[in-house]
Amino acid sequence: MTPTPTYTSAVERRRGYSAYIAHVTDLCRDHGIRHQLSLGRGRPVDDCDGAIHRHLSRLTRTSPARRAHYTLACLVALAGRPGPDAGTDAGPGPDADSKEATPDEGTYLNPAWYRRPNFGALLATAVRCAGFTPGRTEEALDVITRVSTDQAHRRLPALTERILRAGLTPDWPVLLDDLAQYEHQPGRVRTRWFDAYYATLDHAAKDPS
């Protein structure tokens, strides 16, 4: 995989994020590499071990959201050995309203992209399906979207591990996109996650099946 470019559009950025996650997922098929990437847990890029840089430096050195890339590599590693079908972008197909889109471009345009489950929607699913306590889960979402960028990166692995142990998996490219934006637009990410959290709970209440 070539180094992360400077993206000129949201579509390019999201496609690049999906390619990065696919590459990291493939790396994590190797137990040794997976362990090395997991050691980046919560660390700033400059505090990471050389082994982590060996696998991620070439991919991220031009990215303005480098720490988000390192954090997501750690989270993917914490998820354990990928299954045989992991590493492909499992997002929805092109949006029907995107007449100008190339065959895969609609997947990355706003309407389709924002239909994919973000971290707020995932936490709501954990409440619905995995026995997470609503009050404590909402508090965890409130905390992680109010703290500094550094603290968000440090806290995210523990919360993600809880979700993974419950048998749920984040949409990694969407989480990477949101975490990359968090440093500059934390309020927007916070609102998007809370909107998705309550929308997912409300939908479940209306359609218990």
From TrEMBL:
Q: Which domain of life is it from?
A: Bacteria
Write out the transmembrane intervals.
Answer: none
NCBIfam families registered for this protein in UniProt: casB_cse2
**Gene3D superfamilies assigned to the protein according to its UniProt record, in alphabetical order:** CRISPR-associated protein Cse2
Query: What name appears for this protein in its UniProt entry?
Result: Cse2
Q: Extract the ranges annotated as region (Disordered).
A: 83-109
List all Low complexity biased stretches.
83-95
- Its source organism is Kitasatospora phosalacinea
Q: What does UniProt give as the signal peptide span? A: none
Q: Which InterPro entries match?
A: CRISPR-assoc_prot_Cse2 (IPR013382), Cse2_sf (IPR038287)
